[in-house]
């Protein structure tokens, strides 16, 4: 594949995963404010719709181009995504465009690059637009966190969750900047950094799930707590491997095994929430959101193992 084709495919792959993650971050913020902060609710809604528009444009030029590994990984959509969106729309009254998800489900992978010059320019402009949008969203999230930490605002979102989504947005931003700089973009070159990052994300997911379950869900609470502890240890292992204290291959193997297990736990939990069999205050789309992030990490780990 030529460098130009690499740039186009890597950009579109990145947006299909992270663009959706950003729009859902905006949604989770939007539904978490009190009536007093309705202006923040409106700002979050604007961000959500802007990322919807970004994704629509990405989808419109992705067919026959995006990586098969990305489309098949479950990081763009899962069997639960449409139902989770419909249920979350019902519970909140927020208009979530499920047509966008259905369009993603119809995408085909491949290596068709019609009028490469024009497409490269369009992707370049799309990336710059995304950079500006993500920068603004990071600023918005940071402002919310600051207000929460100094008791100027109440939100149902944990402060750690807000920090968590700032870190994910910053990762997306840094990858976009790397692509736009023309530097070699190979995520496998930063395998240990990625493993440390995503192991920590998995640990925090487990802790959020633990904290949002009904107190009667003792078995699920215990399972989530165990996952939190396990991924804290895996994060420490990945950091130790950077200093050659722990073999890289061991970290990847351990992370792969644990991530498959938490992926299955999240899938069962999301299905249970949708079927009204799990008592919690977890909005259905949050369950599917964390499941897709586990699928993304699994794809990365499989590529690192190779």
In short:
The chain is built from eleven helices and no strands. With 306 residues, it is mainly alpha-helical. Helix 9 runs antiparallel to helix 10.
Poorly predicted runs are none
Query: Span from first to last CA?
Result: 20 Å
How many strand segments? Answer: 0
Shape verdict? globular
Number of helices: 11
> Which sheet architecture does the biggest sheet show?
none
Radius of gyration: 19 Å
Fraction of residues in β-strands: under 5%
- One letter per element, helices H and strands E, the order comes to HHHHHHHHHHH
Mean pLDDT: 94
- Given the helix and strand composition, which structural class is it? mainly alpha
What is the share of helical residues? over 70%
Report what the structure shows.
By secondary structure, the protein is mainly α. Helices cover 76% and strands 0% of the residues. Helix 1 runs antiparallel to helix 7 and helix 8 runs parallel beside helix 10. It is globular.
List the helices and strands and how they pair.
Layout: H1 3-30, H2 38-62, H3 68-73, H4 81-92, H5 98-105, H6 116-149, H7 159-181, H8 191-212, H9 218-242, H10 248-274, H11 284-305
Helix pairs in contact: 1-2, 1-6, 1-7, 1-11, 2-6, 4-11, 6-7, 8-9, 8-10, 8-11, 9-10, 10-11
What features would you highlight for this structure?
11 helices, mainly alpha, 306 residues
